[in-house]
């Protein structure tokens, strides 16, 4: 049962009477709370790296007192914090750009298979130390109408997450295939999996699971909210099928009206 926010006004009516007007402002109040939370979150997220940087700067104020090893550690750490803030700001900008663009009519033809391959290459950099086995099943004949930048953001965030959160030697399966008249993208990993209590909240801005929040190599918690909004623009949504200890499958389906329906693809016969 949810609480309701009510705005009440009382005004004089006829003789000896008062008029009471009650308005349900639950939705408005909720939006206002979300806005305030958002500002608080951004401030907090930026404050942490700045505080860390401040500490190192103070330490470096008298570098002749420090062993060289400490100096280089401080510089390395400050550089990591700067990168973190840069990522956060660019993700915030991307999120606000994606959120503020209204409903779209798409005319661009997008070959998502090519985008997936190129994101896969970028993700390989991340993968170098991890030695995951990454498998692709991509239909190159599948053309969709959409916004290539937004779809790239979706794929890139989902692939990066799969690699980031799956421990060394994991397996990652990526597919982009026709499903009747629609098209489905799917990335499955055999990483830690996600508890049901977190699953529905993952696309909230800044939401991270506690264990990841505490890890030093933290992300921003903005990736999946970018994914959510970019998919909404394509009349699609993010699906998650995950079990703790077994892994996670993130997927989305693009509706038939955004998928090019070719005769050849429908009636292709085995050679
Ligand atoms: P970020 O990766 O920057 O923390 P995201 O919004 O992309 O933010 O993801 C939110 C959270 O969801 C992550 O912090 C992580 O806890 C969890 N998560 C995302 N993808 C996976 C995955 N493939 N396996 C396990 N946990 C995941």
Automatic annotation (TrEMBL):
Residues 41-258 form the Histidine kinase domain. Its EC number is 2.7.13.3. The keyword Nucleotide-binding applies. One of its GO terms (biological process) is cellular response to phosphate starvation. Its main location: membrane. GO terms for cellular component: plasma membrane. It catalyses: ATP + protein L-histidine = ADP + protein N-phospho-L-histidine. It comes from the Bacteria. It is found in: Cell membrane. Keywords: ATP-binding, Cell membrane, Kinase, Membrane, Nucleotide-binding, Phosphate transport, Phosphoprotein, Transferase, Transmembrane, Transmembrane helix, Transport, Two-component regulatory system. One of its GO terms (molecular function) is phosphoprotein phosphatase activity. Member of the two-component regulatory system PhoR/PhoB involved in the phosphate regulon genes expression. PhoR may function as a membrane-associated protein kinase that phosphorylates PhoB in response to environmental signals. This is Phosphate regulon sensor protein PhoR. It comes from Aliidiomarina maris. The chain holds residues 172 to 442 of 451 of the full protein.
